[in-house]
Amino acid sequence: MSEAAEVIEAEARRDVRNRWLLSMPALLIILLAAAGPLLIVVVYSFLTPGPYGDVQWQPTLSGWVNVFLERDIFDETLSLADAHVSIFMRSVWLSLVTTVLTLLVGFPTAYFIATRPDNSRELWLFLITIPFWTNLLIRTFAILQIIRNEGLINTIMIKLGLFASPVQMLFTDGAILTGMVYVYLPLMVLPLYASMEKLDFRLLEAGYDLYATPFQVLRRIIVPLVKPGIIAGSILVFIPALGAYVTPSILGGGKNLMLGNLIELQFGQGRNWPLGAALSITLMLIVMVALLFYVRNAKGAGGRHG
Amino acid sequence: MARQFSVRRQTGFTAIAMMCFFALYLPIAVLVVYAFNAGTSLNTWEGFSLQWFVKAFENQQVIEASIRSLQIAVVAALVATAAATMAALATTRTEPYRGLTLKYAFINQPLMIPEIVTAVALLIFFSRIKVWTGYSGLGYLIAAHTAFCIPFAYLPIRARLENMDLTLERAAADLYATPWKTFRYVTLPLLWPGILAGLMLAFVISLDDVVITEFVKSAGQDTLPTYMLGQLRRAITPEMNAISTLFLLLSICIVTVFFFVNKKRI
Amino acid sequence: MKRIKTTLALAAALLASTGLAHAEGVLNIYNWGNYTSPEMIKKFEDQYKVKVTITDYDSNDTALAKVRQGGSGFDMVVPSQNYIPIWISEGLLLETDPGKMENFKNIADVWKDPEFDPGRKYTVPWAMGIVGTVVNTDVYNGDVNTWGIIFDTPAELKGKVNVVPEMNDVIDAAVLYNGGTKCTGDLTILKKVRDTLVKAKPDWVAMEYGTIEKMGSGDFSASSDWNGSAFRQRLANPKIKFGYPKEGFVNWSDNLAVLKDAANVENAKLFLNFMMDPENAGMNSSFHRYANGIAGSEAFMPADMKDAPEINIPAEFASKGVPSQTCPPEVQELYTKIWTELQK
Question: GO cellular component annotations, sorted alphabetically (chain A) (predicted)?
Fold first, then answer.
């Protein structure tokens, strides 16, 4: 090896070492206060619950068994943990519906913004960004005030004579759904807009020249081109929706639980930390599957990186 | 042609978009309007009054929680942005090297794991440390906030770096500038808008956090969002509207600054 | 460079300021939400130059779990009497001997030597009350003095009933409704209890702690509730009525205690003594609207408390009350299982 090559190689090694040193603070902070503790959750999921919360250091699988199975209190028979399974199903279902609804509303909205003239587009974009930066709790509170029994909707409907008495909307699955769509909508619109912004509108023109209807243009040209945005938006909505805690705990009334609330319950009233740990890991695994799906499809879509 | 035909037009899209904007802002508008209501009612207007703002300012718990929120957000955002800047410098403008993908995954990890899972992990981990060390101060909240703020601060900084080539830095080095001087007088000024954006994003993210704070906080460590969560579940008064309105105002100020900093590309 | 230095200095100052919360003269109280008079706390702060923080919880189990995990940083807690033996046997409470404190003489005789804390070695009374029902009579005009409101919800109230999610309150109510006695381990009764609860739950709208405001706003039309809470609801809306269930109801008390790992023991002891002063206890009752077990405190309460139907048990129901007590561990375990099954 020539001397020059050696110098270059030494330089490159030094560069990589410096780069590791530079990234150390960030990596360490995340290891200590985010990623590392996840391992402890795994350990806890295999321990015995203490009588009033916490754990006893006796390994057992009961935490994991409890995720899917339950023993009847009175006849000791083992059956499917209906409670947990139904909460899982409900969480996944509500998150999917939230994703679809945000897409149905978000797609035209993002398209509308992307097709504005340059000077007004900024303004519309700004208007969609504000809620994105606004506290989620406050936005949930805003929905609460609209749908409660003496809220705006019931008041107006009663004044118009459409409702005889207040209709119970708060503390229902519908309330959770409304809240989640409202709260996560900007997360759908922003990535959709980002991919529509790059849309080459001459392609649409070509479509019309070939006598396509507007709907055909939408379905055959626009949707395939903005697919990466659709997938990114769906993932950005689906994942936080699945782990949602604040919205269902304020709008669900402690009766219509989602996974996040079920997990929290185990660390408080439920006094079953291992079960809570096992449920957390299960949630994490579902999210991982969703992310893998995203990575696969994002690549399949031709990797349109701007 | 009877009327002007636009290839961009899709029937009904404008209507849906208008409804979407209306639906996004109506609840917020109602919330703000009733913060100024003279009565306690949330559905009948009883005249203009600032009494709920006065009440909020006289509420010791609200003031303390707000100060605590700001303290945590400022410290966490500063530390997170510093760490994220270094990490961004270390992961951009380079040939791929061993561990680079791992670094990406690690830095973005807090974005990928549901918040509730991280919250549970920190509850378990920190409660052990609290018992061992006897320290139960704000340090835990700051550490937790810093960790989940890093990926948010990292995003705009990395984006900015990727649009900067190394020409200027090389030129500086050719003129015998030390690496520090090159960084200080060449890289940093160019990177500044990205860092500022990252800082603001991290600040807002920290200020908004409910779940992790709720699980990690010790005695008397309510932040404004966890205080509000408790109130929303127990006793809602128009005071909450007043607090929310002020919080909204702060967020809007920050977005506006962020929006214009980010738009002004050099 | 200068700017960076200023920034660093600023950051350091901020970091330092975050430590200030742990200065001397602090008292961290962990209590039920909406249960502490702000005026009374203000008086204590001014009198002893101590900064008080209040953190809320909404069930005995939550409080127990949070404190038991350690390092919570709280100095004082207010558990219900049926949980106090658990707190003591788990070694979570500090033996402060309030029985020897100056103001102990003010405690009403019946509360001087309670079963759950013999000789008052750990606790001081905070409030005492009843678990019953609360109904908005605009919505339902039938009999409110029955657990049927919750467990066989009348048609008018279906989908409008809230249940306060305090495990033992709910299960005790269902036990009494099914003709059992408190703390029963009888499996046939408990099976009925489970079936009652599972069958009733679809008629409930929520399982929330915050009834005072939500009954007032009409989000709930009925709820299982505590009498002081019902009292506050009636003051806001005269149509809201508290029911003494004829099947039986539990009399409870919540008691203030100091935690073993408290950092501010001296301030906590000052507060224990402070709470046994009739004027202070009366001030607190004027806020939470429960009786407080301190003799002479009535003089410091508003006049409407003297003849309130929520505070003075009507003669016909007086015999229906049963004292709250800690159930044997094996029974408690069954209760927990039933409760878990209810959390679908």
Answer: plasma membrane
